[in-house]
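Can anyone check this?
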Amino acid sequence: MQFYKNGFRGGNPDIKEAAPNRRNRGINEPLPEKVDVLIAGTGPAGLCLAAQLAQFPEIQTMITERMPSNIIKGKADGINTRTMEMFQAFGFADKVKRETYWVNQTAFWMPDPKNPEHIKRVGRVQDVADDSSEMPHILINQARLHELFLEVMKNSPSRLEPDYSWEVVNLTIDPTTDDHPVTVTLKDASGVNWGATRTVRANYVVGCDGAHSAVRKAIGGQLHGDAAHQAWGVMDILANTDFPDVRQKCLISSATEGNVLILPREGGYVFRMYVELDKLRPDEKAAHRKFTQDDMIAAANRIIKPYTIDVKEVVWWSIYDIGHSITDKFDDVPEGEDRNPRVFTAGDACHTHSPKAGQGMNVSMQDTFNLGWKLVHVLQGRADARLLRSYTKERLTEAKRLVETDHKWSRVMSVPTTQAERDGTEEPRIIRQFKENLEFTGGTAVKYDASYLFVASAHQALATGQEIGRRFHSAPVVRLSDAKQMQLGHVAEADARWRIYAFAGKADGSNAGSAIHKLSDWLETDSSSPIVKHTRKGEDIDAVIDFRVVFQQTFDQLAYENMPPLLKPKTGKLGLQDHEKVFCADHKGVGDIFEMRGINREKGCMVVVRPDQYVAHVLPLDGFDELAAFFAGFLR
């Protein structure tokens, strides 16, 4: 990380310099009359969006929550590798890695053919495929994840904090004005002024308020889906057991008693169990059966015979129905109407599914990671509001894929095993399906369709491992200025900036006249350059587009003093030189980024990456006109 850019400040560098004229907060302070963005709900989706917008104090952001405070336990727990890559951009991935349980192997248990009433281990699968990501698949208490986002918000220049105990009950949109056209009605749930209402006008509203979303209902959205008519229970417990794989992720299928999913949790002692209970009638809900935690414990002990679980403490538990649903739109624009959206939904407000695939919290955060930078661009006047139409287009496709895959996975988990699976003559369907799903469950299967934000480039062959529409796949590099080994993708922060990574050709070095020098000089000085065109007077030269270069030579074969000025820019109030723009291939055997990501060694290339870490374009190093045209398609 970089700090002291605008002068020396002691203390925790994560605490940013506070912006002036911040809003006063407190139970007796009035709510603002107008905001740029009002976020409803402090779940993962809402907090992920708020943490992004909090970095921009000129954008007035408000986040409301009907509960009186953050949750302390329960709810979701799985964080996939793609989300961990996103956490790196927020600056807390290392903290998460230190605190959490890492899912390294998944074990599968099925009925023992010699004694079908007992289970036995039938296989193990590596949970994260080699080089699918530099990040682990982890499990963390959702409440702790909330705290990490809340810390980012509180340490931001805007010092953003939630307005707890305020519930969105309705909203209206005035189509005749562009001046804060959305009026939101909030109800006091604190008890101080019980039931009193206030109105706040907003330019944009984002409903992250769960499956019963008031925001979704206000814009006419409905959840459509189906139910599997199967009751499951979930509990976080402290327990002793003779089951040998209790500290591994386990999928357990019994012959007649159902299934259990075991997920170890952070701290070494707590673990979670998803326990299959009873089939339900088509007209019946799990809540009607009044299952208790004792029912879950008894069912788990029946399923894992000959092993037993002695529960010492139930930390949290819940009963739920398996269901899958999705809305037909993620914003307020009616079908066939040609206008820009003002209200959006994200997370459970627009797609719900079973918890067992571990995708809900991840996809919810990816929804708002997609939306956040677009709102920043529009509110800063860098892009036309048409950019916001791409949110529904991009995320609805991924939500449908999630629901379809989760639908299939839930049914595979609930189907009884066959004799062939039990006697080992056929690989169990659940293991086959798990292997097929690895990319999906890691969150790395997302591939956005071609659009003006994802160009179907004729130059994809220059970087076969950085596929347009997929997330930028990081790899090891060495930073030239200080010979530090690191991951290239870790230079990207959640700051709404675009990245251009230029990979130098084989003959290209640090000498003047090289392809890298020509590209750098053009980007810095030419009137048609997107950096020159879209960077405002008085801004740092990398305020909108962050340009970085990777060479094939080792760090000791390059002359840093010969690098072009754009790779040693002077930024900030003091005009201090940035020494962290130039990299080279790793020379210590960790991995060669050119080889690992299919970068053309002879020619090199440019890889253009969106603020949400997805590859938008691949171009040759001399593709000046194409690069300018791409950015001109959406930036002002």
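Reply from J.R.: I decoded it. The chain has a mean pLDDT of 92.
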